[in-house]
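Quarterly update from the structural biology core.
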Amino acid sequence: MVLIRLETGGYVGMSFRRSPGSYYGVMPWSERIVVDADILAGKPVIRNTRIAVELILELLAAGQSENDVLANYPGLTREDILACFSYASYLAHEYKAYPMPA
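Predicted structure, tokenized:
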């Protein structure tokens, strides 16, 4: 379990049960997504870039098409975008928050 301090002063415990990309039919995101404390303060990024996963997901959620994102970020591939979705899916399946007193 990992504890994260919230801006409100409390803490949240996080627990992850499965290994990355262990769902059937889902691209193994760990081949394309990296987390390094020296890159963007440890935010998940697409390997060999400084493009944050959250940025790609926000662009797509805001209505930009996959083709628009690929045109605006020439180093990005369709597989990178799929890895972002796979990473988001992994977090949605595995993230469990447990409120803890401050």
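Residues 22-95 form a domain with the Arc Repressor Mutant, subunit A fold (CATH 1.10.10.10).
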